[in-house]
Design brief:
There is one protein chain. By secondary structure, the chain is mostly helical. It has a domain at about 15-85. The protein is built from four helices and no strands. The protein has helices at about 15-25, 35-45, 55-65, 70-80. Helix 1 (about 15-25) crosses helix 2. The longest helix has 14 residues, at about 35-45. The termini are far apart.
Length: about 110
């Protein structure tokens, strides 16, 4: 018995969110740390994914626009992580969490 959906393109549950991120990346001329990391993680997320061809094409377009190969991108992002970079470190980042440190409060 054959499965009619076998080999069919799938819709990734984060497609809409990732589309917004990728549109932002496409508009960047000189990427900052966060943008390099975003591109690398999205390339990994969609590598081999059976669908989201529009996102995969735009990710490749972003690499070309920035003048990077995939290996160069991964080399740069590995260096960022090794140097202690963590998402949300940049001022104005859209990372999840409030950044509120309760340990710094005086307790009555």
């Amino acid at each position: 018995m054959t499965n009619s959906s076998q080999g069919a393109a799938q819709v990734h549950p984060l497609h809409a969110t990732d589309r917004d991120v990728i549109d932002g990346l496409l508009a960047v001329e000189q990427p900052e740390e966060t943008q390099l990391v975003d591109l690398a993680r999205l390339l990994i997320r969609y590598d081999g994914f059976p669908g989201a061809e529009d996102l995969q094409l735009d990710l490749a377009k972003t690499l070309r626009h920035w003048g990077l190969s995939r290996d160069q991108l991964h080399q740069r992002t590995r260096a960022l992580w090794s140097s202690g970079y963590r998402p949300g470190m940049a001022v104005g980042g859209d990372a999840v969490g409030s950044g509120f440190d309760t340990a710094a409060q005086d307790t009555p």
